[in-house]
Amino acid sequence: MERKEFVEQAAHIVRRAMAFSDKARREGLLALDDEIDVDGLRRRDIFELGIRLVVDGTDFKCIDKILSNMLDLERDELTKGLKTIQKEAALLIQDGMNTRLLLYTLFSYLGNDEMDEVLGLLNDPDISQEFAINEILSASEN
To answer: What is the pLDDT of residues 52-92, one digit of tens each?
Structure first.
């Protein structure tokens, strides 16, 4: 996987995870059933499979084990990083994490340059402003 593809797919996952998190918190996990991408399930997409297991009421430890086993098979580092973000997104949604914390957690898997590129692709001024404010606060503490 090339870096550009990684950034594009990471932005897609973050956007999708945020939407799923919002919907699950408003309407419950079962409301995500209609949002699952069946083609993604066929491709063994970790996020889609994780959400399917979440909607089915599967125990956290079981989901973590299944998705971790799938991650262990991956040899390409960028693809493995992307799948790790997908796995975490599914587990955080199951846990009911609010969208802001979900975003911070998913971004913790990205380097600064990658995060900036994903922020640009998300094209969300509120999110970009929040991360800019946090960078300013972090710099002023040092």
So the answer is: 999 999 999 999 999 999 999 999 999 999 999 999 999 99
Q: How far apart are the first and last CA of the chain?
A: 36
pTM of the full predicted structure?
0.84
2 phi-psi bin (left φ>0, alpha ψ -120 to 50, beta other): beta
Structure tokens, 119: 């922020």
Residue 54 CA to residue 63 CA, distance in Å, equals 8
Q: Please, which contacts does 120-124 make with residues 24 or more away whose CB atoms are closer than 8 Å?
A: 121/7, 121/8, 121/11, 122/11, 122/14, 122/15
